């Protein structure tokens, strides 16, 4: 089956709005647009099914409860988990990583070690720093060359005190995808817990946690055409079973006494309070939507656009390319030689081309690579060839104008 980005794009109502007729949306690593079935599912939930779950047993409450458990089953299939007890709904990757940092680290001993990398999103750095400070743990980083983690050298930072290895499945700042089979191989004989931050990866690859071999996997629905404010944590059942709960409150208890409580079984033990029910309905629709697509063809299309962008930018004397074409999940990061990244973003914005400029919540990568502010264009399957042409043409025009005004120096602001 051949993939048509033009046809695929038609399923996303935002692009059909008159004001977006010329929009070139290349900020997909920040969040993706939503297809009609997802928008309808959120709307339909409020129109027809709005009621809280579990607490009562009237018709609408039962419908809501069934909906949540059906979405859990879809999420289980989406990542090939063994059981729905292994799927914990949460607000997204950030919340899932905070949950893991809290619940895993409170069981560790002072001096135990956690391994992360310079390419992590802040969501996979800061929770570990907070937990390390609280429990006197040591944070170690995968060896890197100019900021780029050398995942095949992971062994150098592993030792008998290593307890948790929490690494990206794909960097949101430079698109780098580690070879997860190499990481699996290196961790094979170690008694460590392996977490994959799949926030970016889940949009670009069919996930199979059995094949990956990780203990935990986190993702956010809004990165793969679902609503914001919802995501999930996959965890091996035995591990989730042995972990203490995180938030306390309604829904996560079996019995409450004066001095203590008994907790609910998995997965509810980790789902205190009312879930984002409409967003969960949207997540279910996004998972159905993805299940109907030819994911291989989508990825091939995204990869072709990503290679095209890298080829053009690496050949241009006007840009310094920061991302690499190889093992890239669809992100090109670069800085203009003339002018500043921020100026370039405004130039593009005036032409209705949406890219991101900044540190992309990956300041460690910026500090270690020397490029703290970059322009990031990130593709999704609805990006067309004409999107890429429009983007490249706008870059050319920007360079022509910069050369005319004669700002011959690389802007200091690219090196903040
Ligand atoms: N990890 C990565 C690699 C990400 O790209 C993001 C979002 N940019 C997150 C974690 C956090 O995701 P969220 O903000 O949806 O919780």
From TrEMBL:
Its cofactor is pyridoxal 5'-phosphate. It catalyses: (sulfur carrier)-H + L-cysteine = (sulfur carrier)-SH + L-alanine. This is cysteine desulfurase. Residues 24-391 form the Aminotransferase class V domain. The keyword Zinc-finger does not apply. It is an enzyme of class 2 (transferase). Its EC number is 2.8.1.7. One of its GO terms (molecular function) is transaminase activity. Keywords: Aminotransferase, Pyridoxal phosphate, Transferase. It comes from Microbulbifer echini. Belongs to the class-V pyridoxal-phosphate-dependent aminotransferase family. Csd subfamily.
């Amino acid at each position: 089956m051949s993939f048509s980005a033009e046809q695929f794009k038609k399923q996303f109502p935002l692009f059909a709005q008159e004001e977006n007729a010329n929009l070139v949306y290349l900020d997909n690593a920040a969040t993706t647009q939503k297809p009609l079935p997802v928008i309808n599912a959120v709307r339909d939930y409020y129109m027809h099914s709005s009621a809280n779950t579990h607490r009562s047993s009237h018709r609408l409450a039962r419908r809501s409860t069934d909906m949540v458990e059906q979405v859990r089953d879809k999420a289980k299939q989406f990542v090939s988990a063994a059981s729905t007890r292994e799927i914990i709904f949460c607000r997204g990757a950030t919340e899932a990583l905070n949950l893991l940092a809290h619940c895993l680290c409170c069981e560790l001993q002072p001096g135990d070690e956690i391994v992360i990398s310079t390419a992590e999103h802040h969501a996979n750095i800061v929770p570990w720093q907070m937990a390390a400070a609280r429990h006197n743990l040591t944070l170690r980083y995968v060896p890197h060359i100019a900021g780029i983690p050398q995942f095949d050298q992971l062994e150098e930072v592993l030792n008998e005190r290593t307890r948790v290895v929490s690494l990206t499945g794909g960097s949101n700042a430079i698109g780098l995808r580690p070879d997860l089979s190499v990481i699996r191989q290196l961790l094979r004989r170690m008694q460590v817990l392996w977490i994959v931050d799949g926030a970016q990866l889940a949009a670009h690859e069919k996930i199979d946690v059995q094949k990956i071999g990780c203990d935990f996997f986190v993702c956010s629905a809004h990165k793969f055409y679902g609503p914001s404010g919802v995501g999930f944590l996959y965890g091996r059942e035995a591990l989730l079973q042995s972990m203490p709960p995180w938030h306390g409150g309604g829904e996560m208890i079996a019995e409450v006494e004066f001095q203590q409580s008994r907790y609910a079984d998995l997965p509810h033990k980790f789902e205190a309070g009312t879930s984002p029910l409409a967003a969960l309905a949207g997540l279910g629709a996004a998972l159905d939507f993805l299940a109907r697509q030819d994911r291989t063809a989508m990825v091939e299309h995204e990869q072709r656009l990503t290679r095209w962008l890298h080829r053009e930018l690496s050949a241009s004397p006007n840009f310094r390319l920061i991302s690499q074409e190889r093992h890239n999940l669809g992100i090109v990061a670069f800085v203009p030689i003339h002018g500043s990244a921020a100026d370039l973003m405004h130039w593009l914005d005036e032409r209705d081309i949406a890219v991101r400029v900044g540190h992309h919540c990956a300041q460690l990568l910026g500090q270690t690579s020397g490029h703290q502010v970059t322009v990031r264009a990130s593709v999704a399957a609805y990006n067309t060839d004409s999107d890429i042409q429009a983007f490249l043409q706008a870059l050319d025009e920007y360079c022509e104008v910069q050369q005319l005004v004669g700002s011959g120096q690389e802007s200091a602001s690219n090196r903040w």
